[in-house]
Amino acid sequence: MQDNNPKTPTLSHSRRDLLQVAKATSLGIAMSSVVPSLASSQQAQPEPFPTAADDLPGLNDQSVKPVHSQGSLRRDSRYLVDVHVHVGKRQALSRLPIRSAAQRTG
Amino acid sequence: VRFRSEDPQKFAKMFAEPQIDNSDRLVEIMDSYGVTHAVIQPVPGNTSLDLTANAAKKHKGRLFPLYRPVALMNATASGKAMTDPTTLAQNARKTAEDIEKLFPELGFIGVGEILPGGLVTMEIDPGKISTAMGPIMEALQPKRLPILFPTGSTAFKGNLYYLYNVLWVDELAGNFPQVPIVLTKMGRGLKGCFDMCLVVAMRNTNVFLDLTDSTGEHVREAIDRVGARRVMFGTDLIEISRNYAYDVGAEIVHDAKVSKEEWEWIAWRTANEVFTLGL
Hints:
The structure holds two protein chains of two kinds. Chain A has helices at residues 11-19, 91-94; one strand at 81-87. Helices cover 12% and strands 7% of the residues of chain A. Chain B is α/β, with parallel strands linked by helices. Chain B is built from 14 helices and seven strands. In chain B, the strands form two sheets. A five-stranded parallel β-sheet of chain B has the order 3-4-5-6-7. Chain B has a two-stranded parallel sheet with strand order 1-2. Chain B is globular, with a radius of gyration of 18 Å. The chains are: A little secondary structure, B alpha/beta. Chains A and B meet through helix 1, strand 1 and helix 2 of A and helix 1, helix 2, helix 3, strand 1 and helix 4 of B.
């Protein structure tokens, strides 16, 4: 889809950007040497997490459906850490239709 | 992808809007699925590091924040990569400075998903990429702070080469073996990209994989080849995926047929070690 709005990203913009690869020069930053193992960092110990998730309140937003019973995804593991969550929303997103897994496109 | 293609102006306008803290809602969704902790990172466009840091403070002990360079996030949202060599070199130095100064100040525990293209270089030679990433990796290395690189594909434009052709990470991981590197989405279900993620992980013990948007088949193969100690659970939970992120994650885990011991690593032990969560 062609769009003339200069503020709107287009595929041609993107490819032009990447074509700069051929023109770009080396940055001349010195190659980093491998540094021996140093003391590992320790973050401040987090506060203990409440162990029972069973009595947590339900979702305020009824458009979100908790399909699985609480903890079933966790499969009795001690904890369940989701290492890939993005925080921050825009108002425009609230106006989009709620999507299903089949509609996910990345 | 479809939304961007069908209505690019609306897409661009949306990403120019200010961001709102939605961490309360995300935590509620986590609770409903028994997810105890999350590693969070900002989204592109009008990116606010304070928003991410404050969300983690508000949910202290449950949400752990990752840093992403604001300049890259805003460039990503606008679809225009930074290509000027001077700017790219400055970005590398600025990011390294942020790691040393901003991390302790705001509590960041690592660098979230970034790519070298349009941030520190436009080169595609692995050696040159590693050189350009040098300042950032050297800043991370003393404290063994992790860095995440997305793989597979993305709705955002630019950087497809670095996303899909993950082999460049092999050089970087070899040069900086003390820095944990997470290849997020482990190829995102794309066979060719998954193979590259896997071979890079096989050759470098500091490379880890998160199973976000992967497949049970790929997760199983990754466990068989590099072990569950190198695999982590992730979903890409975000405002737009709130209705399905954990259902998809559950399906991937189910299809991978993980044993109880493997699941303990994937569910939290690997993440605990990579991100030093203190669990």
